[in-house]
Design goal:
α4 packs parallel to α5 (99-109) and α7 (168-192) packs across α10. β5, α5 and β6 form a beta-alpha-beta unit. The relative contact order is 0.11. This protein is an alpha/beta fold. The protein contains eleven helices and nine strands. It has two domains: 2-166, Rossmann fold (3-Layer(aba) Sandwich), CATH 3.40.50.720; 169-269, 6-phosphogluconate dehydrogenase C-terminal like domain (6-phosphogluconate dehydrogenase C-terminal fold), CATH 1.10.3660.10. It is elongated, with a radius of gyration of 21 Å. Strands 3-2-1-4-5-6 form a six-stranded parallel β-sheet. A three-stranded mixed β-sheet has the order 7-8-9, covered by helices on one side. The longest helix has 25 residues, at 168-192. 51% of the residues lie in helices and 14% in strands. It has helices at 11-22, 36-45, 55-58, 74-81, 99-109, 150-158, 168-192, 201-207, 214-223, 225-248, 251-269; strands spanning 2-7, 27-32, 50-52, 64-67, 90-93, 115-116, 119-122, 142-145, 162-165.
Amino acid sequence: MKTIAVMGLGLMGSSLGLALKKREVPVNVRAYARRAETRDAALALGAADAVFADPREAVNGADLVVFCVPILTIPTLAMVCLGGLKPGAILTDVGSTKAELATLMNDLLQGTDAKFVGSHPICGSEQQGIEAGDADLYEGSVTVVAAENTEVSSLWKNVGSTVRVMTPEAHDEILAATSHLPHVIAATLVRSVHDGLFCGTGFRDTTRIAEGSPEVWSDIVCTNAPALKAALKTFRGQLDEFEGLIDAGDGEQLTAWFSVAREQRKELLG
């Protein structure tokens, strides 16, 4: 039986443990969490077989180590784990950016026989903490794996995800436009509204993701800045075009603008 170490028991980590157990994947799940309450909850919920306060103990004997913490915390946590890693261990993550993390982790692992293969399950929730854990979170999702690797791909397939192999750079460019930009827009929209007395359902639906973890999103922006800035430039151009249509006061052009957006959404979302 293989052993998986889940490093971090927030939404993504606890959901991974719960999914492995619900689907009866034959693995032993060891988990790390800083807080005793979180460790106790993981055992009570059945999200892990054993829990640890020491990261090095958590990775002891693990064939696969999955980091489920904010992106820029991963190298620091991995450094603590180095002395406890099993020879040939494979390390992966659930972070939303891949290129900069791959560089940091590959530098860290030089001279060891451990290997880092980044991954990103494209799913989640604005909810946080182990209490938000969902055994079905990964069901039907797509997970990007940053290199061909049987162990990492099998992990995500085992919890119901479809795997796509993609370079870290390609991943970051696509996600900047389809995930990172929407979050920044949602947060900016919230910051632009000062009276919520008559906020409609459109505001609620559009800004739901703005409740995501500030620490997680700060790391995402810092590790994908060039691609996100390019996406922001494109978005700003669309806003400028729309403002011009407002100034022109041409209802037909405005209707055409909204029609293009509606059809493009249908195409993008299939």
